[in-house]
Amino acid sequence: MQDKTVLSHVKRLSAVNGRKDIMPLSWVTYPGTHCPLFGAALTVRQLKNAVMLVIGTEECTYYTKSLSLVYGEFGGLDGRCLSFVMDKHDVTFGCKEKLERAAQELVEEYAPEAVFLVTTCVPEMTGEDIDSAAESLWKAHGIPFLPVHTDHFRCDGHLSGIQNVWAACAALMEPSAPVNGVNLLGKKAGRSELARLLEAAGVAVHRTLPSDCSLEEIKSAPAARLNIVCSKQGLLLAKEMQRCFGTPWVSFYDRCRPAEIEEGYGMLFELLGKPVPAEVAEKAQRLREKLALAEGNLRGGTFILGNSSVEPFVLASFFAELGMEPLLIQAKEFEASDAAHKEIILGQGMDPYVSQSANLAAMAGIYGLLKPCLYLGPAERDILLQHRIVGIGLPKAGQMLGFELAEHMLDCFTAGMERRRQIKENEI
Fold this sequence. Notes:
This protein is α/β, with parallel strands linked by helices. It has helices spanning 3-6, 36-44, 58-70, 88-93, 96-110, 121-126, 130-141, 159-168, 193-200, 215-219, 235-245, 258-271, 278-298, 312-320, 339-347, 360-363, 367-370, 381-386, 403-427, and strands spanning 11-12, 47-48, 50-56, 81-85, 114-119, 145-148, 181-185, 204-209, 213-214, 226-229, 249-251, 302-305, 325-330, 353-355, 374-376, 390-392. It has 19 helices and 16 strands.
């Protein structure tokens, strides 16, 4: 593959103004991106006594079950991922009556507390009315049947499946007596710095969604005073809970700089009617000191940002201000909130390529072309080292927020640049 071909499909950050501008790294990829079905399976498996019924081809269910079982860190569905297979008659004339018979069998055999009716591309393209079917089945059986749309041709990966399952859970919720607590939405943030500071201030974490929880616990989620959105995957649920129950929400996932994090905590505790813990100012000062020490070691470095659980443009702008140049940013979307980070990066005289999140095969032609010091995200470490690139994984970052996240990323970058210098010295 010629160099000019490798990056011919993607745009520079200066030309990116929306999701439509984020192009694939190449038209031919292996193995490709995960389907929203995968995201739905990862989420449903956390809900005790719930069943996932995939509506479409049997290949879709096989894919979903196999991946949810293979990815051990996510756990499996323990037989709770079932298939409603559409044949050519169903595709042509609809599957309502057949789906009703399948639902009867499912309820009798599994006795679930809730059923998630998860669509695939086939019923979405044929216009099957799964929403009304779910409503009818709920009335007929007296248990929730919740529609979850996971049509892959309208999205770029598995994250929409996660979002849509949690948004569907709003239908399980009921008005509840208020409690002195908050909900954390969007990631497993129950052990995060945010959760610890809230509890130290006397504010309980009422529910952490997603987490391993019962449907009964989800039902009482509206009792919380406030929803704190800890990642973009929680936005749809937060908006749905505000619409249905009036629960206010704030976001806390897009903060890396000391002043931003400090401001975020100030806003939160003001809303909760609590004084800001003294620990917040102490953590802000410690982060400022670490940033001052790290800047000299980082300036002049370069990196490629691969797939990670950290907001890509937030991370890239944070390190651009420290003098590290992003050469390529992989992202699934570009939203209005990302525009400010774009301007920070461009203001540093940097204009990285931006592509959709790419698999390892698609990245193979990039390492030698861009020659970054660091690569962040999953990668084949041996191949990176062949190109004198230091690989940095961020597995812990997915459950971090606030100062702890910024410090963790800073430590990773600093250690990575030190390793890079050692590699270069050994070459001399």
